[in-house]
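Whiteboard transcription, Tuesday session. T.W. wrote the C-alpha cells on the left side:
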C-alpha cells in the first residue's frame, strides 16, 4: 500500500508512514519493525476522523468455507501435544466470494481466524475471543478487520458455524458454510491504525480496522475455543511508538 493510500484510509501521520518506505527500510527490513500489532486502544486518546472513507462490506449470505487448524509450532515436529501461541483455527474463503471496499478500492477476503484472548485491548478490556478478517488489496496490500467476540448469542452466526465444529490439532480440514453477510455488527465504527501481522514474520505495514462494537456468539462455542487453546493463542499488545489511532464513526 503506498503512502497516499495508507494516509487516506487510516489517517497515518506523514512522517511515521514515510519511515516505513525509505530505501534503507525496504532493502533490509527488521524482523520486527517499529509499528507492531496488536495494541491497546484507548478510546479517549483516539482522534475522531469523520473524513476517512467508510467501510463498505460485501459479504454474501452463503459462502463455502474450508476450515483447518494451522500448526506453526516447530518445537513439536513429530507430535501434536504442543499448541503454540501462533496456531489458530482458520476458515478459508473461496477466491472472489467476499470483499470490503474503502475509498473505492476493493479488498478481497482471503480467510478469517480467531485468537483467545483478544489480541487488541479496548479501554483495558480484553474480550475472550478476537476474530480477524484478512483481506488483500488491489496491489497486494494487507488489510485486517478485527472483531471482538463475547458470549451471549443464541447461535446461527458464521462464527458459531465454525466454532461449533472445531478441527482437531492434527485432524483433517473440513468443509463448512455460513452466512457472512451477518458476520459483522450493523454499526461499523472502527479504530484505525497502521500495524503488522500478529504472527511471524510480523510483517509491516498492515492496515488495521478494529470494530468498536462486539459480536455475540454462544457461550458454549466461546468455551470450546478457549478449551482448544488453554494457554491462549494471542500476542500481547505492542508499544504504539508514536502512532495515533483514528476513530471513524459509522
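and on the right, the sequence the group agreed on:
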Amino acid at each position: 500500500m503506498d503512502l497516499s493510500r495508507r494516509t487516506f484510509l487510516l489517517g497515518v501521520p506523514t512522517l511515521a508512514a514515510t519511515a516505513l518506505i525509505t530505501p534503507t527500510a525496504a532493502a533490509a527490513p527488521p524482523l520486527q519493525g517499529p509499528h507492531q500489532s496488536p495494541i491497546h486502544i484507548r478510546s479517549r486518546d483516539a482522534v475522531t476522523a469523520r473524513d476517512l472513507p467508510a467501510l463498505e462490506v460485501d459479504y454474501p449470505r452463503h459462502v463455502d468455507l474450508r476450515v483447518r487448524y494451522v500448526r506453526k509450532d516447530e518445537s513439536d515436529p513429530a507430535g501434536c501435544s504442543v499448541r503454540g501461541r501462533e496456531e489458530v483455527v482458520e476458515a478459508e474463503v473461496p477466491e472472489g466470494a467476499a470483499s470490503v471496499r474503502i475509498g473505492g478500492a476493493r479488498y478481497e477476503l482471503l480467510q478469517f481466524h480467531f485468537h483467545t484472548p483478544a489480541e487488541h485491548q479496548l479501554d483495558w478490556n480484553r474480550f475472550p475471543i478476537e476474530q480477524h478478517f484478512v483481506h488483500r488489496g488491489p496491489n497486494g496490500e494487507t488489510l485486517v478487520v478485527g472483531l471482538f467476540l463475547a458470549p451471549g448469542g443464541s447461535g446461527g452466526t458464521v462464527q458459531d458455524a465454525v466454532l461449533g465444529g472445531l478441527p482437531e490439532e492434527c485432524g483433517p480440514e473440513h468443509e463448512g458454510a455460513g452466512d457472512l453477510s451477518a458476520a459483522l455488527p450493523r454499526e461499523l465504527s472502527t479504530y484505525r491504525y497502521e500495524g503488522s501481522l500478529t504472527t511471524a514474520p510480523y510483517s509491516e505495514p498492515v492496515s488495521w480496522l478494529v470494530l468498536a462494537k462486539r459480536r455475540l456468539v454462544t457461550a458454549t462455542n466461546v468455551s470450546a475455543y478457549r478449551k482448544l487453546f488453554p494457554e491462549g493463542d494471542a500476542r500481547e499488545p505492542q508499544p504504539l511508538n508514536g502512532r495515533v489511532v483514528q476513530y471513524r464513526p459509522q
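Someone added at the bottom: The first helix runs from residue 3 to 10.
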